[in-house]
From TrEMBL:
Protein's organism: Oricola cellulosilytica
UniProt region (Disordered), positions on chain: 546-565
Bias (Pro residues): 554-563
Protein name from the UniProt record: Molybdopterin oxidoreductase family protein
The 4Fe-4S Mo/W bis-MGD-type domain, residue ranges: 7-65
Family that this chain belongs to: Belongs to the prokaryotic molybdopterin-containing oxidoreductase family.
Keywords: Iron, Iron-sulfur, Metal-binding
Pfam entry (one): Molydop_binding
GO molecular function, one term: metal ion binding
Amino acid sequence: MNIAPKIDIRRSTCPHDCPSCCALDVEVLADGTIGKVRGSKANTYTDGVICAKVARYGERIHHPDRLLHPLVRKGSKGKGEWQRASWDAALDLIAERFEAAEAQTGSESVWPYYFAGTMGQVQRDGIHRLRHAKRYSNQFDTICTNPAWTGYVMGTGRLAGPDPREMALADCVVIWGTNPVSTQVNVMTHAIKARKNRGATIVAIDIYENDTIKQADMGLVLRPGTDAALACAVMHVAFRDGHADREFLNEFSDDPAGLESHLQSRGPEWASAITGLTVEEIEAFAKLVGKTKRTFFRLGYGFTRNRNGSVSMHAATSIATVLGAWKHEGGGAFHNNGDIYGFDKSEITGSAYKDPAIRSLDQSKIGRILTGDTEALQGGPPVNALLVQNTNPVNVMPEQTLVKQGFARDDLFTVVHEQFMTETAELADVVLPATMFMEHDDIYKGGGHQHVMLGPKLIDGPGETRPNHYVFEELARRLGVAHMAGFGKTDVELIEGLLRNTGSGETYETYETLKVKGWFDVQPDFERSHYIGGFAFSDGKFRFKPDWENGPSPNKPPQPMGPQGPYARLPVFPDHVDLLEESDADHPFRLATSPARSFLNSSFQETPGSIKKEGRPEVLIHGGDAATLGVEDGALVALGNSLGEVHLHARVSRKPKRGTLIVEGLWPNKAHLNGCGINTLTSADSIAPYGGAPLHDTKVCVRKL
């Protein structure tokens, strides 16, 4: 008689770099492994739905290729020759080499380099505690969020908006610059509720006909980087046709008369020439949102990852203000709820002993930094030692040729704490095996919703895997800073402290309560969420005329760095500006590197289910362009520009517009036939005004191989 194994259902939280931050129900089997992973039906945002890649997480956490033991390089860099070491021996070596680098060229020559491989507040951000205690170089985070956050906050004054669950109460949901069918499935959950229960219209705006546009009632496919032109035309029509809420504008905006005058020359015909949309498409969209008071603008990150990114986000957010959509339940503009949480992370990050004189290095410019670019180094010493956690820069960062050259330096000592032997780990001197989220304790906040969520340890990690927190603590002890505030505590003690001490002064529920509940909801009330009493500036007015040089942003460049990119060219009012990397005779196409459904940046590249779903690296090219080039479906092509060349297969498609190329997903460099991944072609130039990498703004040529 076969007896079914005992299964416990335990709560967890998805840690991956996605605004959905899903609440999970995880099957924990009697043998200490996990079974099925489901979205929690009890959580009102997750609502029982998660993406397919996390649903099959057992593939990843129990993958046979996981790193299990510390490894020390014994051959030349990148040759794959390793010697197993104990944790003590590996950590002793790391401390010795970090101290040698500091003695030779100063503490700033050591750079702890991290990002969002986990969104856990303790396991991700504790690296700063070690950084500040040792006066190592700071990191200015630029790869992902800055243009979007800056554009939104320049208008509203605060990174927060309507309750995203209100999408289900809208009569029109505008999904702009994000592909949630592939990347934020919960957005579609609530949008489809609105369509089913209220007859709402779903509009999707993007640069190619992706899976979200296929599910929308109205799909607008425009040229990359031209979103602000569409937004201006929509506002032009609102003023022209009497849909602008003049009473709201007069009370809650800085210069509505100036905006209306500015938009006189920026109607649908003007925008059509810029965006590639027809006049009829623009008029239909403007009429729909103008007549639909409950319009919820769900604004993503994708349309801001170009040189017009901050301007585009600000312009799209401005539409909700012109229409007065903020006044209505199910209306307004939402991007991210980062400012509602009020966490005081000073104990975790060691901010009390941060020295403002220590330089900050631009995360996106790591290739320039490691190859000795004086400007990128902020005039300081070379980086001679790296500690890399939660990121895979040899795959994900722009200007990959420089990145790989930098990591290959013989005089660079690199430590990588990882779950798999990534392409960054392959170029390390020491590789440390890392736990995954079900194998350690952490706490999370949802940028795409409003929940503080616990991610407790559910199972033991395999082999000698250790969490990030262990590495911080052990290095601190060896480097002589373990006596400083914040060190010497367990990860659970740091979680408890975070819940006790919030920036707003209120005390959240206790760790023990959170263990039982799994999460708690901190969404502000309707009036605050919708800016009913005014926007988050001293005068309460939305800024149609942002101060691009000095205005607010959640992640402004440190004072010594100042504004970034061509900020002096940013417009006074919402407008399209000629900052894009325009195509030319030698590079007639514009390339965007959009997310794939089964990958998340470089995560899930190793899981069989994701690899099978994605197939191989391909470039989407319009049939008309393919015919002109003599490229057949499946043909091998080279994409090139001044930064390098990438070889991959063509997929002839009607999804992109002519002149636009789309490469979905971030495949490993080695998956491409010439060993050069798509970020070989992308630039590390700074997006104005506060930085960011223009990953969807790349001019290239195409040739058949």
